Amino acid sequence: MQEIHWIEQGEPRSARWHSEAGNPPPKRVQVADDTMNADDAYRLACEGTALLWRGDFQNARQLLQALARRADHKKAKGGKGSKARAGKEAANATEAFHLHRQAQSQRARTLAMLLIPVEPGYRIPLRRAPDVTLACNEAYGRGTDAFVISLRELQGLIGAHEWRKAGVPLAALGERIHPHYGVFSPVRGEYVQLVADAPLPRGATDLAFDIGAGTGVLSAVLARRGVRRVVATDMDQRALRCARDNIARLLLDSQVELLEADLFPPGQAALVVCNPPWVPARPNSSVEAAIYDPDSRMLRGFLAGLKAHLSPGGEGWLILSDLAEHLGLRTRAQLEEWIAAGGLKVLGRLDARPVHPKASDASDPLHAARAAEVTSLWRSIMLASDAGWSSLAARRAHNPKVTGSNPVPATRYQKAVAMQRLFSFPTMKPILLAVLALPLLHQPVRAETAHALAHSLNAHILASASATLALEKWCADHALAAPARIQARLQRGSDKPASAEQRARLGVDAGTPLKYRRVQLYCGAHLMSEADNWYVPERLSAEMNRLLDETDTPFGKAVQPLAPYRRTLAARMLWSGSQPVPDALFEHSAVLYTAAHQPIAEVRETYQRSALPLPAGR
Fold this sequence. Notes:
- By secondary structure, the protein is α/β, with parallel strands linked by helices.
- The protein is 34% helix and 23% strand.
- It is built from 21 helices and 21 strands.
- α1 (38-46) packs across α2, α2 (57-77) runs antiparallel to α4 and α5 (133-140) crosses α6 (151-166).
- The longest helix has 21 residues, at 57-77.
């Protein structure tokens, strides 16, 4: 146990030192209160003298803000010893990164010099101090002894508690994820969207692995996409507790299993997903371990071990930003070498541009790298030579009819790879879909085929922020119509008053006007769904209300300027998989929210048989 020591009222004192970042206790400590001015405090902090606060808590917060302003002003001015103008003075992006990190570290050390005492039971013995008992219990567990902590760290703990209560809305999930203290928050939703959009490989709906679970967000997305069993791993106990909490909140406990493991769980899966730290550098705190990975340890470990944990024909998904490449910390050639060394082949890549504020902040020392950054989902498979059929002897052992050097019939794995390559050419896709459909014209549709398609459509909609856009993408992917555009056909003259429960979910009282809309959504001649929609017209613009009143515009498209997302209330399959295929496949109930988290509509949707790419009349 580390201790901090100081002199107060002429007597030596000591207390346990607490630092989540692992910072050593300061060697020099001076008692301070409301009489200390910011200039003196900043000078002492820069010299390495910590200030143990005995004054008003809110005054301590104001003093910390004053110290931050002085630190930032010194950086901007390029004062003595400052690394602040690192981005301009650096010879290249790599040097700019290291100077920026040094400046960040120095700033953090200076601001960490303002200390707060905490008594047993997490009580702060200062005037106007907040009650931090719940926040500390969440982060540290039950507290029985006194300690001293940096005010800056305590503020981070309080902020994490608020994030945990409010949650982070994710359009790709249509839900909120609640990060715990010390677990990195999925505030950059573009990588989550990539996992929601990537086509699932065959067999992935049976079992998938999520390596490095974190908050559990990617496991939740996979489960919502219809993966019946997800095994997620992490080494950090806080992350595992956080993921369990989120999975339980989302009612996905029966689908997601969490294990403490370094990278992979036992066995093989058709889909193995990993979102490792993106930057090969040393983290300065526990939460930074989700961003910085010394020597790309986790990335290289994942690529080296992936082949052994992929079932034949399965895919590994690596979610990775190329920021490290723009900073000169890793090259694309190195990444490709590690992929090849793991016996893997890249099937394709999905890319997304970041939308976080730093990407457009020209004052950021790393602006050039951040502006060029792309986040990618790399789809990798085992090389054909590693799929278990590399030697003629092995083929003969499996099939005695194989002789000499005659060509061997392709395995299912090799056929899948060949088909994937053909489908990668846009001009080939409609031709191949037409050719593949020909045999179906002469035989009944197999129930399991149609049932699998229904589950796939269900998962696509559950994973999307907009049912309309999900249906359009489904139409395009399955060539149901050209162009693949969803059109609404209003069922005019119908009305269903909203229930008291619906009004409560929409946050309106009995006197607030609600409008009802019943529509059929078509893609070409295909009836995709029938929907009942209750919406709050006063929360929409005049143009949105006009479109909904006077045109057949789908609701999701009419309100698109509000950047809506949906939160599913219920999802129910109506078909068990037996023949014949019924008209109604499954039902969804959901509430639609604006980007500002204001509810605007409740929908009940019934998805139809004709949404499936099946031969007519079968």
